[in-house]
Amino acid sequence: MFARGIKRKCFDGEEDIEGTLAGFKSVPSYNLQRQSLLDMSLVKLQLCHMLVEPNLCRSVLIANTVRQIQEEMTQDGTWQVINAQNTGQASLDRLVSSDILCRSTKEQNEGKLVPSYSGFSKDFENTPSQDIISDLSTVTSVQAPRNPQSNNVWEMENSQENRGNFQKSLDQIFETLENKNPNSVEDLFSDVDNSYYDLDTVLTGMMNNTKMGHCDVLESFSSQTTTNSNSNCKSDINELDHIVEILVES
Amino acid sequence: MPEGDTGWKRAFEADIISTVEFNYSGDLLATGDKGGRVVIFQKEQEIVSPLRVAVSSTRHSCGARSQHLPYVAMPQLSNKSRLHSRGEYNVYSTFQSHEPEFDYLKSLEIEEKINKIRWLPQQNAAHFLLSTNDKTIKLWKISERDKRAEGYNLKDEDGRLRDPFRITALRVPILKPMDLMVEASPRRIFANAHTYHINSISVNSDHETYLSADDLRINLWHLEITDRSFNIVDIKPVNMEELTEVITAAEFHPHQCNVFVYSSSKGTIRLCDMRSSALCDRHSKFFEEPEDPSSRSFFSEIISSISDVKFSHSGRYMMTRDYLSVKVWDLNMETRPVETYQVHEYLRSKLCSLYENDCIFDKFECCWSGSDSALMTGSYNNFFRMFDRSMRRDVTLEASRESSKPRAILKPRKVCTGGKRKKDEISVDSLDFNKKILHTAWHPLDNIIAVAATNNLYIFQDKAN
Lengths: 250, 465
Prior knowledge:
The complex is a heterodimer.
Chain A: H1 2-10, H2 14-21, H3 28-47, H4 56-76, H5 78-84, H6 89-101, H7 117-124, H8 129-140, H9 160-178, H10 182-188, H11 196-204, H12 214-227, H13 235-248
Chain B: H1 3-14, E1 17-22, E2 28-33, E3 37-43, E4 77-79, E5 89-96, E6 101-103, E7 108-110, E8 116-119, E9 127-132, E10 137-150, E11 174-190, E12 200-203, E13 209-213, E14 217-222, E15 230-234, E16 247-252, E17 259-264, E18 269-273, E19 285-287, H2 300-304, E20 308-311, E21 317-321, E22 325-330, E23 339-342, H3 351-356, E24 366-368, E25 374-378, E26 383-388, E27 393-398, E28 414-416, E29 425-427, E30 439-442, E31 448-453, E32 456-462
Parallel strand pairs in B: 28-29
Antiparallel strand pairs in B: 1-2, 2-3, 3-5, 4-32, 6-7, 8-9, 9-10, 10-11, 12-13, 13-14, 14-15, 16-17, 17-18, 18-19, 20-21, 21-22, 22-23, 24-25, 25-26, 26-27, 30-31, 31-32
Pfam families (chain A): SERTA
Domain SERTA (chain A): 30-77
Protein name (chain A): Cell division cycle associated 4
């Protein structure tokens, strides 16, 4: 559950995020949840290529959703904000999450968080899963965030040992995922956490900026970190979380 | 995962029904499943003259009139009983239509799951149907054999050849009755015409041609010719990066053999006339309902994606199914549908969760009743919905073992959307999203419906007066 693991990290440094985003948007929680939706969508796009054959309709719909979020974020100016973000473990993790899931053009575009759609088009052409794995392993070599305070996260790339570590972690992930048949991969996403219903309320009404109680929303997410016990997850999801933790350097 | 578990799960998965279709007379009901099998049911010959019950004539008071339960103007439906002599459906034929294949070029498996079955109109004693998986369409002939010849000259009864020098007399073989044997044989295989996954096939009213549609293209075939097809719609962009819309369903008009429609993932329907040009990239009519700005969200496009389109039997209307609703369109009016029915509006506030668990991408089908007066479509928790167009009534029913004992009358169900849950109501949070009814079919003449719930098929009929 990539989205879940990363979300936990996100809200560890909640105050930092609010501080930096305040002034750009009157509802900072909306931004975070929009970002979560973006992360979730990117995960879906990548994962669907590991199955038998990607469902083109689904991929197109998810890609359109991603595009829509990005357009809105660009209009808001929050897109720039996130790029300039260099404080807080949480923001870094958010960058990392998108990075893992986006294509390798990141290596070229330092400081730009733009998922490459040329990568997606390649996916639409039904590339075999092996290509995806090798592409992703190239991508993860970019993020080696030892020093979260560094401005130029994107420049810290190609450290040989980092590459080895992340390659191994990635391999572990893919091994876990490949062993499952498509249905159980979908099962990873079928855990409907109750706190997501709050996400629903915020997001589905969000285009009109209908306000949710900030406290309620943030509370639900912070409580998620404490109450979302492992007993709710399957053991293989624990394993996945563990692997994600390795990746994001908790 | 231990080997045993995987094997069991695969065996279970193979039985998941992926398509249901009555033939033109309604005597045969075909189902296709995820394992590539086709099972055909046949209606028993009725002993008494059939009670032809149309929806309009059964508008009697059925079910309690109360404030809580919706008034059921629909005919009461009960499960088929084995004891009742009124035509029940029994297994007629079973055969393996498609096998799993491997595309070596792309290193990808081609699923054997049957996406669609369409019957051909019957022209002789045999029955013909088209079945398709993601890549290949097959024409199957289903024929009966109930006689066998006995008394051959050149071979014994057990088939061994007789020594010709021993034959001293000639005899004429006699036809003797035998146990009915139903044979299915593939007559045509239409392959290698689709790069993307086939989602629809539709037999033309000329009974000679049919169309097959995948995500980006629609091809026209002649039933006799397997080595070529005509491409009539192609929406693949030159640069795949620009792809934002795919074809989700297509169907020929029931009477006009030059007209077909196809729906898209953006909630639009295009009607095309094959007389206008060979490549129907330009539509003749474009159906789209303007978006309601007040309900706009990140999921608006996804839930507007049309999962099924069906012409009415009359040919004057068509029905589309998107994630939350069913819409009836008048072919003469492109600007908006003439009727809209909410299937499960209570899911609108749960769209993010449904996006997360992928349920938002479920493709529900829909169907018309024989007289076009009613519509039916599926939902979650093994619920399915029926809408009476003339009476403007709707009902939610459940297809499950508990509620479907033979000859039992289906009880209307209700989903509680918030606040206090009344007795017999189910709250939205208790719905089982793994129990989805995607495929339903309505008998072309009678009030008999077939509902596929995962790996079970339910057949309900109208309760006789």
